[in-house]
Every structure is written in C-alpha cells, then in structure tokens.
Amino acid sequence: EVQLVESGGGLVQAGGSLRLSCVASGFAFDEYVIGWFRQAPGKEREGLAGINPRNGDTFYVDSVKGRFTLSSDNAKNTVYLQMNSLTPDDAAVYYCAADPALDFVHGLAVRGGRLSGDIMDYWGKGTLVTVSS
Fold it and tell me: What would the pLDDT profile of 12-41 be if each residue is shown by its tens digit?
C-alpha cells in the first residue's frame, strides 16, 4: 500500500522556520519525484517544489525560491522541506505527493513547466502550518 505521511507542521511566528517531513512507503522511492504543495482556506492548491531522490535534482516555484529548501534521506525514504522566513501568507495545509519520475517530467512539460497537482499519483493527508503575525 502506498503511503505518504507528512509531519512537522505547527504554529510559528512570522520570520520563523519549520521543517516538514514526508515519509514514503509502498513504492520505489528513488523512482519517483516527491513534490510539495499547499492549500490555504479559500485558495487553490499551489505547487511549491519537487525533488528527485535518485539524483537530488530539485526545483522550486518563484514564490519560495531562496526561502524553502528540499532534501532527501533515501535510507529513510523521507523528504524534508525546510521553510525559512515564513510569513502569514505561507499559512496553509502542506501536502507531499509522489509521481513516477518519467511521468512527472512529461507531465511538467505538457503543462509548460507548471507544477500542477494533477501530475501527481499519490498524496499524503497533509500537515497544517500556521504563521502568526
């Protein structure tokens, strides 16, 4: 059974940091791209970043470049999202998702490089991040 389990969310003050974790199981971790998305109340889901654990390649959308950093621990089938300089606009439920690497590349290409949630095959249940001003 495929599972993605996020953790690490919580309440943080503006300017603070959090590290989210995504533990994957039930599939070949190094054959998938792991992406992070978020959804705030009343807003559309937003793609943030992705990592290919096999080669460490990462990409970020412009809104989080320089503030968010992805890493992976392949021995633990875990991807981390380090989030710094958080603002109230970052408050949302954060989700990790997985897609076979080759499918992901194709999906990204046909969407003009836009990290869209409909690319991804598997999803976690999310972890809530709250940022106080």
Answer: 999 999 999 999 999 999 999 999 999 999
